[in-house]
Amino acid sequence: MAIAVPSFAQQNDRVALVADRISVDAETGALIAEGNVTIIRGETTLQTDRLIYNETDGTVSVPAAMTIQQGDALVLYADFAELDSGLQAGVIAGARALIDNQLQVAATTAQQVDGRFTVMNQIVASSCTICEENPVPIWSIRAERVVRDSTELEFHYENAVFELFGVPVLYLPYFRHPDPSVDRASGFLSPEFNSSDIYGFGFKLPYHIVIDDSSDATLTPFTTAEEGVLLEAEYRRVFDRGELELSGVSKLQSDDVGDMRGYLSAVGHYELGFDVVGRIDMTLLSDDAFLTAFGYSDDDRITSELSLEKFEQNSFWTVSTVYFDSLRTTESQDTVPMILPEAEYRQSFDLGTARAEVNADILSYTRTRGRDLSRATVGAGLDQSYVTEPGLVLRGFADVSGDIYSVRNDATLGDVDETRLRSTVGMEFRMPFVRRTAELTQIVEPILQLVHGEQSGNINDIPNEDSVLVEFDETSLFSTNRFPGTDRYETGTYANVGLRYESITPSGRNLTGTVGRVFRDKPLASFANSTGLDGLNSDYVVAFGYDATDTISFSGSALADDDFELSRTELQFDYTGADVSFSSTYVYLRADATSVVDRAELVMDMEYQIDDNWSGELGFRRDLENDAFISADAGLTWGNECATFEFSVSRRFTTSNNVEPSTEFGLTMRLAGLGTQGDAAERRRRSCGI
């Protein structure tokens, strides 16, 4: 039954009252609603079994158990209530609140004030589900009073005591936190406890600051037992055309390494107009050991770059400068080059049925001590493919480019200028054979490339800066120039020969394989013997991949000479199940220009979801040649609907960047409902009442 109430209608929002029975008390004139009573005003809905409306003073009395829902965020449960006609002010007894389906607050009494504030007295708050079988929550807050501001979406506590597993651990005369429904708000984030052999016990307590809708900042004091206090800072801003992130750490006390230790980083991009984008990725360091010592990074070289770029459908250009900060004890910073500038331009277009490209590059290296080099390159290429009626794919290609080199301060060459003309011409033949059945599709594709490359000039007057490391595998088997840079070029007449195989099944059990090698008319001295490309015939390239099931996959690649002696091997196994994921990688590299000894490493990572609450992870990296670990780490996580505890331990077994081997421990606690959810809110919620 529905009835219009004249006094309610005087409010700004219309009010609807629905009940099984509605009557009027003859003596008092009060309106009495009984049985499945629902009263709605704006975003406020009250439900109960009995309600009394006194038209004389405009109050609403609810002598029975009741529920008040305000929007989607707040639900109030109570034993008794005395409210005004707008349901926005009054007194509630035996109140229990559920905010954003997370934070629960129980109070002896509550008041609604001005339609904005909910004041609750003698409260216990927690996001843990409290049941008869689990009467003590993992965490809770007891306070004399809490005020929820529905406009600012904040909670304010007075004389609050934090409890863990029923034990008081912290008293605060006042504190506040954002409403759980708030996505961004200023306040403290989850604390982090850690320990290291280098700095001893450490504690982090981040404070997040929302500046406006487009920017925020985070300040994190990092207190250590043996190295004093560090201050971490992060600033983020989003623009209409880009974004910027500034971060850094400063050690507030001086030590024997230096008076000022820390780092500063800037990462961002901005569209300047006309599709031109400016990018920055820079890091400044106080000393070589800081990042590793305090667990920020194990990198032994830090790359900083400033660039401008423009990408269009058929063209792009970039201009950049790059600075390398070496943290290696065996490498002097004076000998590390700085790139200023590096510019590249590419433009492709259709030329009849062929595809053409023109390009230009400028590159300059400078050093404090040692060789300086500048290079300018222009070039063009043409590519044409044709498919015959039997299915033979024919492709012809050609390119030509010219280089001008200027070398200064070279220890061997002195000062020298050199020009070079490079050209490549070739043909490619592919013939895919396909066999299909209802259960299997197989593709066998023999591939042959015939290539001839030439270059003029004196190659001995051109230092090799960018083509020292050559990777020969299935991805470069059919490349016409396997040098990664420009300083060296693949010349002579050679044939890239290979066979590719692929089988596809409806069940997803797919197999791929590649085998091939390179044949030359004469050896090319530019390739080191460790690359597998020296000599008349290259090493064999072998690669495969197999998806055994939806959850299991294998892959591998290798280089083998005529005696089937392996110079490089990589094997990988992956398993992804409902509760377990596992990944393992084995790599073997024979001694080459970068390492005078053979290297073999095994990397393993595993994650295991033990049950609804527990999960663990384990990983390590091991040097098999020296039978020693390089690094290892493990983690254990426990969480439910209201809290997550993460424990981690890691060990670095090697000395790097002037930092001795060390072990680190970490503990992070996240409490759902106090402005942060993390994984807790997504975990299994126990099914018992509020």
UniProtKB/TrEMBL annotation:
Q: One short Pfam family name for this protein?
A: LptD
Q: Where is the LptD C-terminal domain?
A: 260-614
Can you tell which superkingdom this protein's organism belongs to?
A: Bacteria
What are the BP-aspect GO terms?
Gram-negative-bacterium-type cell outer membrane assembly; lipopolysaccharide transport
Signal sequence, start to end: none
Q: What is its main location?
A: membrane
Q: Which UniProt keywords apply?
A: Cell outer membrane, Membrane, Signal
What's in the GO CC field? cell outer membrane; transporter complex
Q: Name where it's found.
A: Cell outer membrane
Chaperone among keywords: no
Its family remark reads: Belongs to the LptD family.
| Role summary | Involved in the assembly of lipopolysaccharide (LPS) at the surface of the outer membrane.
Q: What does the subunit comment say? A: Component of the lipopolysaccharide transport and assembly complex.
Name used for this protein in its record: LPS-assembly protein LptD
Gene that produces this protein: lptD
